[in-house]
Amino acid sequence: MGQNRLTDLGHHRRQQTSHALLERSKLTQLAEEVGADWKEADFYDSAEQYMEDAWTYSIWPFIQDCDFSCVIDLAAGHGRNTRKLREIANKLYVVDIREENIQFCQQRFGEGQKIIYLQNDGFTLNGIANVEVSLVYCFDAMVHFDSDVIRSYLREFYRVLKPGGYGFCHHSNYDENPSGDLHSNPGWRNFMSQNLFLHYCIKERLEVVKSQVIDWSGPGTDCLTLFRKAA
Fold it and tell me: What is the pTM (predicted TM-score) of this model?
């Protein structure tokens, strides 16, 4: 009986390992598919001109009461958000799946103790310690992420956030094409909604503080959400 139990336990652990590897492979593929769209993109330069208005009227009202002691700029691209965040953050992680984007930001902002550059896998924050971060920030990138990738990131946000730390995400509110390609959706918005994002936050033990639907690529296609990890 004892040997049978050990055999069953070994089989169960192998199944768990296999499932975890398959899940990671799926998330890697989903993240790389979206990341590939931004390998050579004129969007970065064209979008920079709108950053001041976006910051003043949309972003800052959401995050002005947050703690900026340690901030993550997730999916930083060419650094138009980094440029604003480095003015207020004591420590800033600049994170992107694309190596060329990290290199661009390094050349743009230079090295130093305040800024840490990190190329990630597109769905985790490996390299950032548990309960280290006071604010996770992602603007004008998560709108393209697959819902499974978003769920993975929310799980990671809970891990890296300090108790009482905040997250600010600009995500899609477009749910009219659940089985289609995001490239056929307005503004390449991936399948997500305000309520689904709220549901995922609750599942990952994050409390939604404020959420606002906005008209970005069409009526009600986008959403800004501020959430926190309980103190």
Answer: 0.90
